[in-house]
Write a structure and sequence with these properties.
about 240 residues; about 75% helix; globular; single chain
Length: about 240
């Protein structure tokens, strides 16, 4: 397994000469994140400040109420964002492995919307949301840890299909991710933590900096996945 320094170096090498197309590839999900934050994040923060009922009751209600409009909008935005982010990861993975030579921003950004990936990403995203919500009922930390455990599920599904031509079970993809991340969750957490300075800088530029930071993070996550030892967790 490579160090985070080596992973970030590999990400920069992957993006070298491709920054323009990588920015265009990430443009839609970057704008989506900003819009979702404006429409959901800010109102949610305001709403939380006015809550007077018992906290545990509020959490249980928000998790269990499928009819809660804010919950459904958040889930829908999460699914759409995941479809774009997974497409970007898969594109970078193909570039990293040499099976793809250049980025086609428009078609590559929507590759997860195609069969057989669309249904897989949607179902896996819903399952992960349910599992992670249940873990969050215990405490915040277990939910975050499980988020890292499940983080490779989408790429595992894609990688398995590319190698075997067969669709991996949705729950099997999540289980494989959990096994693959065993012992490496802290490294991914530290990798994410290393971008904090860049996040602050992007906020100071009113979010414009994310046009460059988002591809850098996505390429780093891709290099992280490719570096993970897969012998025990995956079979293809």
């Amino acid at each position: 397994m490579k160090s985070n320094r080596e992973i970030k170096k590999q990400a920069k090498e992957l993006l070298a000469g491709r920054w323009g197309s990588a920015i265009l590839l990430n443009l839609v999900p970057t704008l989506l994140v900003i819009v979702v934050f404006i429409l959901i994040g800010i109102p949610s923060i305001w709403a939380l400040s006015s809550i007077t009922q018992d906290t545990s009751t509020t959490i249980l209600t928000s998790v269990s109420s499928d009819n809660d409009p804010n919950y459904m909008v958040t889930l829908g935005a999460n699914i759409i964002g995941t479809l774009f982010s997974t497409a970007i990861t898969w594109t970078f993975l193909d570039l990293l492995r040499g099976t793809k030579q250049k980025i086609n921003p428009l078609s590559d950004a929507f590759r997860a919307f195609q069969s057989p990936f669309l249904l897989a990403v949607v179902i896996i995203c819903i399952l992960i949301s349910i599992f992670q919500s249940l873990w969050f009922l215990l405490f915040v930390i277990p939910g975050i840890i499980k988020g890292y455990s499940y983080s490779q599920s989408y790429t595992i599904f894609y990688d398995t299909y590319q190698h075997t031509g067969e669709k991996m079970g949705y729950l099997d993809s999540i289980t494989a991710s959990r096994r693959l991340m065993n012992g490496y969750k802290m490294q991914l957490f530290l990798l994410d933590l290393s971008f904090i300075g860049w996040h602050i800088l992007c906020l100071l530029t009113a979010g414009i900096g994310y046009l460059w930071l988002t591809p850098y993070i996505a390429a780093s996550h891709t290099a992280f996945y490719d570096s993970l030892p897969k012998e025990e967790a995956l079979v293809f």
